[in-house]
Amino acid sequence: MVLPLVCNPGHVCITDESLYFQPLNGYPEQVIQIKLHRVRRIYKRRHGLRPLGLEVFCTENDFCSDIYLKFYNTADRDEVYYYIATFLENHITEHTAESYMLQWQRGHLSNYQYLLHLNNLADRSCNDLSQYPVFPWVLADYSSAQLDMTNAATFRDLSKPARYRGMPEPPFMYGSHYSSPGYVLFYLVRVAPEHMLCLQNGRYDHADRMFNSIGETWKNCLEGATDFKELIPEFYGTDASFLENKLSLDLGRKQNGSFVCDVVLPPWASDSSEFLQKHRTALESQYVSEHLHEWIDLVFGFKQRGSEAIAAHNVFHPLTYEGGIDCDSIEDPDQRIAMLTQILEFGQTPKQLFTTPHPQRITPRFHNMTRSSSINSPISELSSASQSKDSSFEDLTEESRKLVWANMGNLKPVSSHKIHKEAVTGIAVTRDGAAIFSTSQDSTLKMFSKELKDFQRSMSFSNMALSSCLMLADGKTVVCSSWDNNVYFYSIPYGRRQDTLMGHDDAVSEMCWFDDRLYTASWDSTIKVWQCASDSSSSHKRSQFELLAELEHDAGVNTIGLNPAGTLLVSGCKDGTITIWDTSSYATLQQIHCHDGTIHHMAFSPDSRHVLSVGADSCMKVVDVQTGMVISSVSAEEEQRCFCWDGSSALCGGQSGDLLLWDLLSNTVTKRIPAHSGAVTAMWMNDLCTTVITGGEDRQTVFWKLQC
């Protein structure tokens, strides 16, 4: 059993009801018992850079576990882990770094909570001082009388290691580490003196080297030759006792004659409680929220190792990294003990959680940005243009959307109609909701009257399947794409085909329309962008369409989508590749291979920060638009064919014919609703998210209403 600086030997026994640990030394408790039904989380841990640890939590608090066990070999550890995991498989939800990232990005986790989760996933534990949770210094001002959190100079540059600014040119690498048992106890000596005495062979460190002042400690991190430690979670908690000498310890006399007592606080904090309160406020500030991902890149992410670490001057001793040495391969027992001791006492780099740049958090500043006219506008600016200029209306809409989606499980069928002879492929609705149009593989476009509850018209444009349809903004024209390589325009008032656009060499799979521009995707591996003349709303003659761009792909394009502002286009191909385009320059912004096989459907989140895709590999992927990083991946039990989503939850149509309500923050299905007898192949949702229409391979069109 692992405790700070101590490993207690003993026996482990597990039954159908409990986990037992019997210490073999003079531990106060003869037997430690943990009821399995109380367990909330279990984690495999590395101890001494070896996969030997197992930590068990019986509360939701990730900071302190109920027991930390270290086994002699990985096989024994894994056997106990899988036994408990099997017992708990229906009671716990396993989170990944990507799922926590999505929750943090969307504001469901605070910076403090997110850092705790990352530390936990990176094998950091309060029971193991060599892998104690690590938190960043976030402030650089410890001398002012007032703390100005609106001034960027108040904060540390989180994109660089703590000591970087004080290095001579060129910046050198490090002979120590930012987190080690000595550094942890340096901060905690006033509440854990026995651990410091154990580490220091029965005595405290020299008084002038003790934790005397927060400002001086920060200064030493910038200027000292060997001091560049980061902070620990206690600096952002609520218990200030580690800053106060409440135990009246004799910690020595400094060279200036004063005794070491309470930690000297910055002038802007009147007492230790106020310091913690302001320090936590700084951690959750907008500046830190916008830059925390840079520090995560250094400590947990892609700048932790390799060429990116070298470029960021973030390289530490090889023994601090997982995989740096195999202690089990060292035959000399003395050398093995010496190596293990160095690993445990020198400090260990956290497990690497991310290998690509970490996305930035979505903060209020993004919602106030306006689109730049420059072709080279950053993605964060382009994707933010969908936000309303009226912030109060925007907040109301966002809150309303959250409330509606919270009740999406109450979706009830109103009516169903079988008006096609083959699978339904697309659904479009007039602005007033009076007429519903659907396309099908039976090559027809059909109009259904909501008032009469019966279909009114049936149009056939060719003898090949229609693949999708959309309603133009005028509410008078339906556009249909076909497997015969053409796009057809149907006039609702005149009840006839108005025009045909022949623009591809293979089937047209899907279309988008924005500001008189038509985007057509095809299995000929292209997307074509067409400009429609401003007076075309009445006639839509072919001559009024001008080809603006042709976007090449390496495989057939199966699905496309625009963000709400029309500034970004996303395409999904048959080879599983997602490409994000800038619609002003038609430049490729991101290209990511996400799926094994065809991508069925994809769409931007309402804030344009993420793209959700579903594919033939039964996976659901969430991609961060700014970085191109897959921040969430779910392997479902069946293919998801189509969906509507709000950025956090998704209503998906499954291969089985059911509607599945997914919570993408926990990657779980919260509700399964029977809908069709075959795969759900088309879905439409109104702007209020209260009405849904689905179409399926069973040829049925089902109308749904949200019952709040």
Structural overview:
The chain has 708 residues and is an alpha+beta fold. The chain folds into three domains: 2-94, Pleckstrin-homology domain (PH domain)/Phosphotyrosine-binding domain (PTB) (PH-domain like), CATH 2.30.29; 114-346, BEACH domain (Neurobeachin, Chain: A, domain 1); 423-643, Methylamine Dehydrogenase, Chain H, CATH 2.130.10. It contains twelve helices and 36 strands. Strand 18 and strand 19 form a beta hairpin. Helix 2 (97-105) runs antiparallel to helix 3 and helix 4 (181-188) packs antiparallel against helix 5. The longest helix has 16 residues, at 391-406. Mean pLDDT is 87; it is low at 165-172, 365-396 and 536-543. Residues 89-361 form the BEACH domain. InterPro entries: BEACH_dom (IPR000409), BEACH_dom_sf (IPR036372), BEACH_Domain (IPR050865), GRAM (IPR004182), PH-BEACH_dom (IPR023362), PH-like_dom_sf (IPR011993), WD40/YVTN_repeat-like_dom_sf (IPR015943), WD40_repeat_CS (IPR019775). It holds the Pfam family WD40. Keywords: Repeat, WD repeat.
